[in-house]
Every structure is written in C-alpha cells, then in structure tokens.
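Reopening this ticket.

The earlier resolution said the output was attached, but the attachment link was broken on my side. Pasting everything inline this time so it's all in one place.
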Amino acid sequence: MLLCSDLSYNNFTFQGPEQPTCRENMNLNLNLFRSSSVINNSRPILPCMKALSCPRYSNCLQVNSGGGNITINENNMKLLYEGDEEVLGGAAKYFVNGQSYWGLSSTGDYMDDYDYQNVRYTTSLQSSNIADLYLTARRAPISLTYFHYCLQNGIYTVNLHFAEIQFTNTKTYSGLGRRVFDVYVQERLMLKNYNIEVEAGGAQRPFVQPLSNVNVTNNILEIRFYFAGKGTTRIPNRGVYGPLVSAISVASDLKLCAVKEKKADVSIIIGVVGALCFIFVLLSILWWKGYFPEKWYRKKGAEGLNLPIKGAFSLKQIRTASNDFDSANKIGEGGFGPVYKGLLPDGTVIAVKQLSSKSRQGNREFLNEMGMISCLQHPNLVQLHGCCIEGDQLLLVYEYMENNSLARALFGHEDTQLKLDWPTRHKICIGIAKGLVFLHEDSRLKIVHRDIKATNVLLDKDLNPKISDFGLARLHEDERSHISTRIAGTIGYMAPEYALWGYLTYKADVYSFGVLALEIVCGKNNNDYMPNNHCICLLDWACHMQQGGNFLELVDETLGSEFNREEAEIMVKVGLLCTNASPTLRPTMSEVVSMLEGRMDIPDMVPEPSTYVDDLRFKAMRDVRRCGPNQTSSTSQTHNTTTTNTFSYRTVSSQDCQELKPE
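Inline output:
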C-alpha cells in the first residue's frame, strides 16, 4: 500500500487548480513542488496555482525556521523574522505564505524513528544561553526547500543561520553525532558536505553562513538543503540526521529591506522634537521682530561671557562683527552663499554663513541647519551659536574653526595646505567616525548627514575634526528601513543604492566616510585623482590595490616612512569595507571606531578580480568623465569651510551629458 509519494523530480503535465490533483484535502501526502529547475516560471514552485500576478515586489526575506514570529535588532534596525512553527511535519509537506510570498517544501520520512505521523520535523532547545532565534530549527529527512516569489530581480546576499541543537559539546553519546548535508541556491551547489558543528566550532553555538552574489532573474529565489546520505543517522537517537536550519535572511545588495512592523512611539518622539524645534525657530523670529524683551533671551556663558543664546543675533550685531561683510573677512564660499569671519564685542570669534533668501534650496538648508544642529552637542560636531532672519538676510553663526576645512588642509592650494603627520590623520579619522556614531546611534534623534566629505569637516586650532553643514541632513526612524528621498549630495561620495534609487539609510554615511578615510590616508581627492587610464578615481584605484594586498601603496608619499604601517593598513581596509557596494556588508560606525582603535578585527572581504566596468560605485563617475573636461560633478573643491552641493541624477547616454544638474 502506497502511503507517500514524492514527485519532486518529474516532468508531468501541469495541473491547474480545477484538476482533482489540486483539490484541497484530497492529497495529503502529495507534494507537486519540484526540486530541480526545468521551466523558467513560477509553476514549478507554485503548483496548482493560476498565472501568478504580483501586486508588489519585495527585496528581502526573514524566516525563523521552526519557531514563531520574532523581532531581531540588526544593524540598528528591527527586523521581523516570520515563523513557520505552525507548519508541521510530513513526508511530502508543502506550504505557501500568500501574504509575504514565501513558502517551503519538505520531503522524506524518518522511517526508523517510529513516528508514523511524521509530526516532528521541527526541533527546539529548552534551555540555553544562545539567542532566541537559534533555539528552534526545522529539519528534513531528505530535502528542505525555502522559496520566495515576487522578489525583485537583482543581486542578493543570503544569510543562513545555524545552530546544532540536537547534539551536545560533551564527550558523551549525545555528542558523537555528525550531521552532513549540501546547500543549493538557485540550483547551484553552494555548500557541499556542510557540517554545522565544524563551521560554528561546536554544538549549540550560533553561526551565520553568508552566501553572496546570488542572482535573481525571474523574481524567484530558491534555497534547498539536501541530505546526501552522509554523517550519522542514529546518534544520539534514531532519525537524527538530514539538513537543519535555524533561520534564513535574504537582502538585496543595493536596496534596503522594508521593515514589516512599525511602532508609533518613535514617530511621536520625532514629531514632538520637530515641533519643539519649529517653535524655537518661531520664537526666535518673533524676538527679532521686537515682540519680546531682549533680556528674556540672554544668558551667562559657561565662562561668564554675556553671550546671546542660539537665535538671539540681530543683523546689526552680525554686520558689526564681520565689518559689514567685508571681503577681507571672507573665508570661504558655501554652496548657497559666502562664509565670513566675525568678532563679537566680547572677543568671541565666529563664522557667519550667509544664505540667499531668494533660493528655495537656501531656505531649506537654513531651516534644516536650525532644526538639526541646534538640538545636538558633541565634541566632533560643529557648534551653532545662533542665526539671524532679518530683511532679506538668512545668517547662520557658528564657532570659528581656526584651521578651516579638512579639504583645504589635505589637497588645497600649496599655500593653504597643512602638513598633517600620521598621528594627526589617525586622530582626525577616528574623530569623524565618533561624530557619526553620535548622529547614527547615540543621539536621541537618529540623523543621516547625507554629505560627508572633506569640505564638510572643519578643524579647530588643535586639529580636532568637527562635522559641519547639516543642510542636507535627514531624520532616520529606527522602525523604518530607509528613507525614500530626493537625491542630494556629491557624486563620488554618494552610496550607489542612494545615488541610483534614492534609498537613504545611515549606511550611506558609512559609504561616504569610507571614501573620506581613503582620502585622509592618501592625501588625494577622490574625484580629482586619476592614477592611470584604467582607474577613474581614488576609490577605483584603492579597489585595484586591494586585489594584490598592496594597501601601503595608497599612503600619502609626502609622509615618507613616517607613519604607522599597521594603523595605515587598518584605515585602508576600513575605508574599503565601508565602501562595499552592498549596504548590508558595510559596518556600523560604532564598529568602525572599534576597528580603527584596534579593539575589533576587520573581516577579510576581497572581491572577485574584475575590471570594475559594471561596478555601480563608479558608474556616475564614468558618466561624468565621458561628458568631457568641461563637465564637473561638484563645485565642492573650492577649499572653503562649508559647501553644499545638490544634484539630480538620471540615466545618461552618449548623446546626453546633462545628468548632473546643480540645483
């Protein structure tokens, strides 16, 4: 008597939903899911379904195998891992989650375990110190396949989460088992004779196995775990063999995952703080118009100086301080106006940024600066003293930075360059990283700067770095995977997923920092440096050097041999890691600080050798070079204190070189 039939490998005629074979509850032991690709459409993985129509496409997947729904914090984001604990065992089990467009197929029977109902195809560990995600797992006697349809085509990274929870680390009988299986992704053998204990260094230890460069071309991803008859089968009990997996996470290399759960508290906090900043600006305007007594807005400085609080500057004070905006006091030219040096009556030196009130972009930058930086205090962020709105003037007043911008110090004119020794460069790089850690992780409001570059890093009299120019900054909610926004920034520093699709996360700042770190090591500007005809920028050259491990060839030749070789190599590796084309593979800024300070190892990630012709990181730069010497991607290299450049990006052709338009 035939109880179970596994028809995974077949070329039978497709059965429509109206056929008897596909009627619900008619074939409890029939699984029509195929385990090998023969047709390039959805029918093999979605049998008994009519023509598939995807109302939307996703770019990620998280599954908690054998467990329930669980929310995990990953890279400062809360991701929902959907559980499949309700899917029991079965010799020919097939399950589809129609809401999230994923499912699983499990085949085989543990014929020697005396479980004739085949219900124990999930397993769990009752008590352990490991994370909850690894306390449950799904297993299969022969084949276990997870699939995700309605998936955007592109390159993905698949992370397989393992923990061997059926064996122990003791020298008893329960520790003698050996599980061996193969893993196929998109029908390619990716892992052969895989042993979880060997990879994790023991039983009951979590381990994540990344599989990169997974290509999805027909909107379907398939991950199959297959038992090929190797390993033990009866230790410590009968039926303990076959593939086992704790969780699966899939993420696009370019588009960030859309988080499935949202909470109101973060939105409320951001809304309240935003409203307070708006009220603050409004009260400042009312005071400038003379509606409140001036004494209400004056306070004693920390050192006894009678300075106005933020927002309490009048146009008369600014004119006096800057000698009526004398050109002799002009210290730079920002993206939306000049910057002047000023001197208050008490001796405080200030920098005044003058924005054009006739420019909508200038108005946006002014409000953004006031709303963002006025609420932030950190040693590596420039301090905003106040602002002025009077007549047609929009003025921002900052602390004065004696050594101007990092760009001028590194690659400005010869008469303005500073001789930065290696300890100073190392200090500057770590200081910038700490400033970004505060913006991304430590601040009550999480902020993405969007325009990290050398011109937007200022140096004080002791050459301590301070991040400036928050005109393009955006708030980033923890519950949101990304911000979809109009693309703005500087070509050469923008992360590819943001420059091409407008997907903005803090990982875009990480990418920009990586470029900046390489500039600090090399003393060369990323956009202006072309060492040969094959490399179109500094980052491109660094990627080529990475292939041969020639990291020290990137060090600024003006340093000679006066630099720390170990620290230099770490900085280059960190810079390359931060500029990975995949945002999911970039570190967080707190991890960057730990790496730069030697408290954390740097993962080895050498890409496959290539000419980088199709590398999205360099596409925009190649388009700019193709447009000829008269077309430039940025006006940022004016070597001034603050510069903002905004661009709209669209596809370029050989006849069209207008893809970069300063707004």
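Reporter confirms the inline version is readable. The radius of gyration is 29 Å. The first helix runs from residue 196 to 200.
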